Amino acid sequence: MKDITYLQIEPTTKCNFACIFCCRNKLEQRDMNIDLFKQVLEELQQIHHIHIQGEGEPLLHPDIIEMFQFARQKAYVLTTITNGSLLSKYYKALVDCEIDRIGISIETVDKERFRKIRGGSLDAVIKGIKQVVQYKKDSGKLKPALGFEVALLKDNLSELKRISDLYRDLEMDGGISVQPLNTTPFYFDNYDDYLKEQILTDTENLYLAKEVEKINRSITVNELVNRSLSLRQPAMKEKDCPLLSSGLFVHSTGKVSFCCLIKSGENAFLGDLYHDQFSNIINERFKRLKKFALSGRCPEECKNCMRWQQ
């Protein structure tokens, strides 16, 4: 299992926001059992990077702080993503857990537009960020680095400059990461006409990748987080996806897939931890990787994914 260097694990599919592009309501609403969470990490032993995230809001899980504390013992790099609404509740614990990076989702700095896109309060998010930053200063700690996660739509491309300005104003240090709308079947089939029109072209994606590189060079980015971002950027080489070759995603249901974008389909899952031995799931993963390598074709479960250059 040494080739698995990046574990994504989903603590919950529940959320207190209602983002227009989110498809979590098409999934079973549940929390991952903390015993299952610990079992997965024990099975994998020491792993380079654990990313605690999924379709829901991680900070809604009743045992999320215990999860972070346990994962910290197992991971060289520990990261998570949040909508930011509960940072004010957990800011001390999140700093004390020594998470390497927390990504906070944002698409606009306009309060009303933020509410329309995300169904939540931008003021609450900003308040929480300020509390984390201040507590880091007060406790003399460098972690967690705080960054922004931006879902890119055609309508918010002009917001990147304003988002980077807000990043500076809040003294954030975790960089800005962008994510185009997911176009794998589960997501695309659940988008309405407006969202389908918001999907960026390949040319726009490449241009924006360069723009984001420029922005990240112009803002303060904690060097500790550079390695935590590497596996989460789209692959630029043909038939090269680090999530496929080095990753594993454990859904809150206990089902296992190659990555978090794979949600449905005949061959979507490698197994189910409530029914299958972990070793059998890993063996299935190895068999499929071998099959993909021999065929040289895009795996069916990765169809239309931005990370797979067809």
Could you explain how this protein is built, in words?
By secondary structure, the protein is of the alpha/beta class. It has helices spanning 34-44, 64-74, 87-96, 111-118, 122-139, 160-169, 185-188, 193-197, 202-218, 226-229, 242-246, 278-295; strands spanning 6-9, 47-52, 75-82, 101-105, 145-152, 176-180, 247-250, 255-257, 271-272. Strands 6-5-4-3-2-1-7-8-9 form a nine-stranded mixed sheet. Helix 1 (34-44) packs parallel to helix 2 and helix 3 (87-96) packs parallel to helix 5.
Chain-averaged pLDDT: 89
Subunit organisation of the chains: single chain
Rg, Å, rounded: 19 Å
The helix count comes to 12
Beta content comes to: 5-15%
Overall 3D form = globular
N- to C-terminal distance: 28 Å
The stretches of 5 or more residues where confidence is low (pLDDT under 50) are 231-238
How do the strands line up in the largest sheet? 6-5-4-3-2-1-7-8-9
Structural class based on helices, strands and sheet pairing: alpha/beta
Count of DSSP strands: 9
Helix-strand pattern = EHEHEHEHHEHEHHHHHEEEH
Question: What is the helix content?
Answer: 25-40%
The major sheet is characterized as: 9 strands, mixed
